[in-house]
Amino acid sequence: MSADTFPKLLIEQAKKYGSKKIALREKDLGIWQSFTWEQYLEKVKYFSLGMISLGFEPQDKISIIGDNKPEWVIAELAAQSAGGFGTGIYQDSILKEVAYIINHSETKFVIAEDQEQVDKILDMQEELPNVKKVIYYDPKGMSKYQSDLLAYFPDVIEMGRQYEKAHPGQFEKNVEKTRPEDVAWICTTSGTTGFPKLAMLTHKNLISMATNLGNFDPKYDTDEFVSFLPLPWVGEQMMAVASGLLFGLTVNFPESVESAQADLREIGPHIMFSPPRVWENMCSSVQVKVMDASFLKRWVFNTCVPIGQKWSEYKFEKKTPPFYFRILYTLAYFAVFKALKDRLGFSNIRSATTGGAALGPDTFKFFHALGISLKQIYGQTEISGISCVHRDTDINPDTMGEPIPETEVKISETGEILSRSPAVFLGYYKQPEETAKTVIDGWLHSGDAGYLTPEGHIVVIDRIKDVMSLIDGVKFSPQFIENKLKFSPYIKEAVTVGHNRDFIIAMICIDFGIVGNWAEKSKINYTTYTDLSSKTEIVDLIQREVEKVNKGLPDNAKVKRFVLLYKELDPDDDELTRTRKVRRHFVEEKYKEIIDGMYEGKDSIKIEAIIKFQDGKTSTIRTVMAVRNI
Fold first, then answer.
1. Phi and psi (nearest 5°) for 622?
2. Which of 138, 155, 359, 497 would you call most buried, defined as having the most Cβ atoms within 10 angstroms of its Cβ?
3. How far apart (Å, rounded) are the C-alpha atoms in residues 268 and 251?
4. What is the pTM of this model?
5. What's the domain range around 406?
6. Quick one: pLDDT at residue 194?
């Protein structure tokens, strides 16, 4: 049996490693619980048979909603083993998003983590006609629930054991029937213009992508990986499932999102792949801790970081540093960077990559200064996550690397990035018209504007629909400016506007925790986010940060005016996607009154807005936002 599907790979790895090697590890109540490859296969086998005993049939679908846990990947592989497939739902999704994905995918079984997620399904039971079973795996708070719709995860495994007695060898027969061309998983797209599309990825798509990425960025069965980013995201599927099964990695699941950083440090992973927001948050956390440190520690840090940045520039330019500078960097490394890497959980890191959006060059250089060989990845859900990546010996902070094996990349006449490879998806589920617009003659149309360098690296400018032109015809990338702004620890999000206007403006969201900490030290009283963002001292603080960014921007790309928004941008308000990409056109329409006021030259803008909370309650905010000229 050729290991050309995920269930077949699982059987192969279980035969190879048996009970000798850990496949999955989960932290529960402060203790790491381990599952060998043999146990991993056993749970997948019996959960698959258990679902079959409950009526799951070939081509049926599951939806999984919850935090990253072993049960997630077990359920995913179990559905594939039974001839079906499924999709993941972000656990913070609101009800309308959950209902859309479940109904559009025609989900039959929902795998829900806990009481909170089960309640979402039960509250919409009449709106989900296809759902026949809800299987939960955290029993806390579930003891009094009485519904024929519900089943407990371990009970389903036990049903599978009983089913096997009457149907010996059924699991193995089912797995043998799986084919590389079968749909393995549905990943939701970012959905920046509305509900996400459901991209169908086959076993062949995902396995070929993981294989070719491994040729560029090797992975080994001794590697540890920490899975703390949402599993509905294609990047986490790429690492925790595809690469985990293909290379025999040990995949670790933190106890919670809040404990992820501490658990990361405890494991000391060899591999990490995260979107820019995670790297930006880490960078901000370091800068905040430095601000809180003693004068001597701040002086040492601020002295060593420029040395590290210069070291990274030698690396990017492929130049050998002078002997004296190598000694200088070694001193800086042992004085600051080595301990800092350990604090971040990167003592053993060998492969560090970022993708999903462009990472600001300042953040990129910061991690290289620490001795972390961070690489950029370019790709999208529709090409199983990856088409280009940096080689360890050829890293350029201004590019996204070069195509991985079996991948072709070219630029269309309109400047759009096109890709072709075995990893290109099967299509959008139940949306053939959208599929036909996206894949033309085998080429995936990315929607990104970019170009290829003479060295063969891809440079991504921005989304084609987001590239803007000032009224004088000068083009600019809002994403590039926003990334520069977000390098500041005080700025959490920024949206720049300027299309068909005389100049560029910015709407900025402060980082409430970091700015709040700064305000407390400066003896500035405040109550809410809205109150803090309206303080003159805070606007002054952010103005200094914007002025720093402007110094590194061309004259026609400088931010001329800005305001601090009275609230954070939020996925629940449709302002961000679940992967925290800005829904730019929606935001511009929603805050049109503010944008118009800034261009009209107003010094302040009065706001009366309704804020919606997660429980459905609303509140009215009245405030005055100061408009600053730079």
1. -125, 125
2. 359
3. 12
4. 0.85
5. 276-464
6. 64
